[in-house]
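Fold this sequence, please.
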Amino acid sequence: MVTLTETMIRTEGLWKEYDGKPILRDINIEIAKGSMVLIEGRSGTGKTTLLNILGCMDTSTRGHLWIDGKEVTKMGHKRLSKLRLHNIGFIFQEHNLIGNLTVEENIILPMKIAKHQKGHARLEELLEAFDIVDIRDKKPAKISGGEAQRAAISRALANEPDILLADEPTASLDLDNAGVVLGAFKKANEIYGSTVVVTSHDSFVKSYFSIRHTISEGKLSSEWS
């Protein structure tokens, strides 16, 4: 069991501007290893921008970001690519599974890229853990939205990342499927010890998270329950 005493993600004085307009303003956040964190706020408040920066898919205009004690803002392109491949799993709102690949092929693809030594064993473990064995040979167009997101979570966990980030993962799902997907994040956190960070503007998502940060006009406020 992962203790919540060590910091996995930390920012200091993080700003993001587009054409001189601030989208994020002086963001200071600390996320413990093994925690589940919600970043909420209305559409257009900067949630996705912040998640992209935390996931090393975008850079801040100024400020600092540390992941597992390493300052990301000082890393070059190659080190950032390696960090994303091995340490961060990212799940998009529309799951972004590759349409001409089966569920199994989608999950195993990042392991092939990373030359994972136990790829097939990891594949079977993930298919079982997220209850998608029965759809392993189906393509994304033939499965439900909830199944697609569980497959996307499995793919994001393929290379055993420390961090799992999800941008509005329930936005296009009904309540039943949304509950299944949020349960899958909890499972990823409990079974694999993943540090899970989810953005959402759906109010019902709150009940799944005891640590919540709200973005409003580019500024962050925090809440614990």
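The radius of gyration is 17 Å. The chain has one domain: 34-58+85-224.
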